[in-house]
Amino acid sequence: MRHVPFLLGSYFFFIVPAHAELILNEKTSNGTPMTTPAITSNISPQNDNFQRCIANLRSQAISSGVNESTYDRYTQNLTPDYSVIDKLNYQPEFSTPIWDYLSGLVDEERVQAGRQKMAQYRDVLNRASQAYGVPVETIVAVWGVESNYGDISGKYPLLQALGTLSCEGRRQSYFRGEFFATMRILQRGDLHEDQLKGSWAGAFGHTQFMPSTYERLAVDFDGDGRRDLVSSVPDALASTANFLKQAGWQTGMPWGFEVKIPQGMSVSGESRRNKKPLSTWEQSGITRIDGSSLVQGNLSATTSAGLMMPAGANGPAFLVFKNFDAIYSYNAAESYGLAIAHLSDRLRGTGPFVTAWPTDDPGTSRAERREIQQFLLKRGYDIGAVDGLIGDKTRQAIRQEQTRLGLNPTGRAGQQILRAFRQEQARQMMQ
Length: 431
Ligand SMILES: [Ca+2]
Known about the structure:
The protein is of the alpha+beta class.
C-alpha cells in the first residue's frame, strides 16, 4: 500500500483518504484551519517536547541506515508544524457519496488533459508500457487522479510534516519509518530537500508515493542516475507502471467492466474480493452492459472476477479482475480504484457508465463546481478562490442557499443546486 493505511469505508459513502484534500475535499488555498487552530509559536513547551523527541529518535534513525551527519543536518533547524496533527485528527463533517467522488475525478477536463499528456509523452509512455506490461491509459489515469498530471502534488515540507507526525498524535511508529525513509532518499542524493514537498501525510511527487514506497519501487527511467518523481515525468510514469506490475498487474487483461444483472438476482455477499469464474457469472445471467457475453478477448470461462456494486444494488455494477486489485492497492479505496479504472477507459474512448447512480442529485464536474462557486461569490459568501475544490466553507454556503431555495440542505455541490442557481439567474435576467 502506498498511502497512509488508515483508509476507511468501502460501501456507498467514503471517508476521504489521507491525501485527498489535494484533489477533492478541502481548500488548500485559503489557509483556513479545519479544526481548532494549532499552537504555532516555536517558543513553547510543545516545541521543547518536539526537540527532545527528535533527539531521542536519532539512534533509531541511524540503525535504519541514516548516517549521523545526515540526521544532524536535516534535524538541526527542524521545527514542528502542528497543523498536520489537525489534519490527522480531522473528521469530515460531510461524507462524500461515490457519485460526487467520481464526477469530480473523472470529468471531461481530466479526460481532455489526459489525452493531451498521452500525445505529449507518447514515446516515454510506450516504453514504460512495454517495460512493465501496463497500458499507457492506466499509467496516465493514475497520474491524473493522483496529482492532476503533476499540477497538485502538495505543499508541506516532508521532513517537517513527517517529523511532527513522528512525535505527536496517532501512528507515530508508522510515520517514523517514513521520516527516516525521507532522510535516506536525501542521503542517496535522489532528490534535494527543497523538492520534498507533499501532502500533510508525506505522499509526494507526480504519483504521490510515500517515501518508503519510493525507496522500494521508484525507478530511474530517463537515465540520469537519479530516481526523481518530483521533476522527472519519465521517472514518475515508469515508477507508477512498476508499482502496478509489482502489485500483480496481468498484462493484456482488463481491470473489469460494467455489467447488467438480471432482475431479481440476489447480490448479497458479493464483492470485489469474492471472486468466481466467469462461467458462474454467465450461468446466473449476467452480461456485459451492452448485453454481450462476458468471455471475450483474453478472458476465458475460468477467469475469476468479483461483483462490485459500490453504491448498492440499485447503482452501477462491475465485474472486476485481478488488475482492479492492483489499482486498488495504489490507494486502498474502491472509489479511487474505480476512478482510475474509469478514467483509463475514458482515455481509451469509452463513454461514461451506462447505469445511473441511485440519486436524484447527481454529481458535478470541476467546471460545474467552479460555476457553483461563482454563484456563491455573487451571493456574497466568503468561500476563498474559485477553484472547483469544495471545502467546508463552500459546503456551509451551499447548505444556506439550499435552505433559501427550498432544497434539501445537504451541503453538496450537486446538479440540483446548480440548476436552481441557473434558473434563478435566468429569472433575474428576464425582469
Ligand atoms: Ca532519473
